[in-house]
Predict the structure.
Amino acid sequence: MTQGPGSITFEHLWCELAPQVLGSVMRRFGDFAAAEDAVQEALLAAAMQWPREGVPDHPRG
């Protein structure tokens, strides 16, 4: 996990990756409401975990 001076902020990752992840989940499962719920839950978990443990090397995963 990486986080330090010059690291990308959580907010930047959220804005950049959330639409990409939502699109991927939507294409995979075909249910927008369920995909949106899943992505929101993942983002909530990241918002709680990443400040303590740092942003993972591959946050999109």
Q: What stands out?
A: The chain has a mean pLDDT of 82. Residues 10-53 form one domain.
